[in-house]
Amino acid sequence: MGEGKSSVIIPLVASTLADGSNLVRVVTPKPLSNQMFELLVRRLSGMADRPVFYVPFSRSLRLDTSLVGRISDLYRRCVSEGGVLVVQPEHILSQKLMRINFLLTSHRKRVKTSVANDLGVLEDWVTSVSRDVLDESDDVLHVRYQLVYTTGEQMPVDDHPNRWVTTQEVLGQLKVHAMRLRSKYPKTLEFNQTQRGFPTMRILDRTISQEISSLIVDDALGGTLSTLPLVVLPPLIKETIRRFVVNKHVTYQDRELVFSHCARTNLLCGILLLRGLLVDGEGILGYVLEQRRWRVDYGLDPSRTLLAVPYRAKVSLHAILRTTKALTYYLGCAELESGVRSPRRSNHAYLSQLLLWRFDKGSSAPMLRYVG
Q: Sheet of 130-134: strands edge to edge?
């Protein structure tokens, strides 16, 4: 700080790169944009005779082909005259996202297709000729400038809401089989049923995970899972589904048979979810039970969120978070009953307001259901 990076080095580098063949962009954070523009004007627009351009771009612009053409002309003029373009990270992101937005809505108006094509040509040209000089690079390269913004209408995730119910029913079958296997594997299967509700368990041998996965697949093929009516399928298809779910390496014939038979039904998403949970060696259920421990690697942090969070700062896949969240709510029901408070909420959130616990005689695990 104060060593002349912005006031000396950036003007030197920018003027050197602006040789008539490059589009030199000085990328600066929004709070420093005006200051950088005035600094470059003082340094480069005098005896150096280098023009300084500033073309703000936002998604609020009402773009048409003529406006895109004028923007393109300004960019090309900047290149030919050896000028420097001052931009903000938001301008670069907005220009890319405008093209995507026009492509997604081009089926409604044909004119949007031509605008999207012009934006695509402009973006490709800018990518090929631009040279970026970053001011305050630690801020410009921050993750907030790498986010993917939402566009279009909100849509539910695949197999919603069955993906939640299927995961919880798999956990219910896990409890049933773990109770049966604890006497068979007393040293490699930790099983504690001292507390009310769902037992705490940990698997110390991968062969137990394989056996439990195989038993749960048998249950699914037998019709135990309410979201997957696999029992009505022909025996050949059921045996193929078993290999597809359990085996890590699937043959091309098995994959094609499963996809061709279930492609136009709701079964395919559920089968893929089962494979993600139970596949040999890399299944999420085995990973959570072997390598993650409740209150050690994951659990509740009511000051942040009502979701289950990893205690060690590692980003988890959504399917892993879904499984650990269900286990956290099963195991931590006593904590939830006492009420948790979030700084973003004005009232306490009690378990009865968050979830309905449904205990059926034929069900081995509680079912979590959101209430409005």
A: 52-54, 84-87, 23-27, 130-134
Q: Of 336, 230, 327, whose CA–CA distance to 273 is shortest? A: 230
Token digits of residue 248: 């890590």
Could you identify the residue written with the tokens 């062969």? 207
What is the number of residues in the chain?
Answer: 372
Q: Does the pLDDT at position 356 exceed 60? A: no
For the chain, give every domain's residue range: 5-146, 162-370
Q: 358 pLDDT exceeds 60?
A: no
* Contact by Cβ (8 Å): 17, 24: yes
β pairing state of 84-87 and 23-27? parallel
Query: What is each CA distance from 147 to 109, 144, 161, in whole angstroms?
Result: 28, 6, 26
Given a contact cutoff of 8 angstroms between Cβ atoms, the answer to whether 362 and 347 are in contact is no
pLDDT of residue 237: 94
Alpha helix positions (H), the chain: 10-17, 33-44, 65-80, 89-104, 110-129, 137-140, 162-181, 206-221, 235-246, 252-262, 267-278, 284-291, 318-331, 333-337, 351-354
Alpha-carbon distance of 223 to 237, in angstroms, equals 14
Residue 131's DSSP bridge partners are 24
Return the closest-CA partner of residue 228 out of 185, 191, 265.
Answer: 265
Both tokens of 183, joined, read 């006497």
Q: What is the pLDDT of residue 236?
A: 94
User: What is the band of 318 on the pLDDT scale with cuts at 50, 70, 90?
Assistant: low
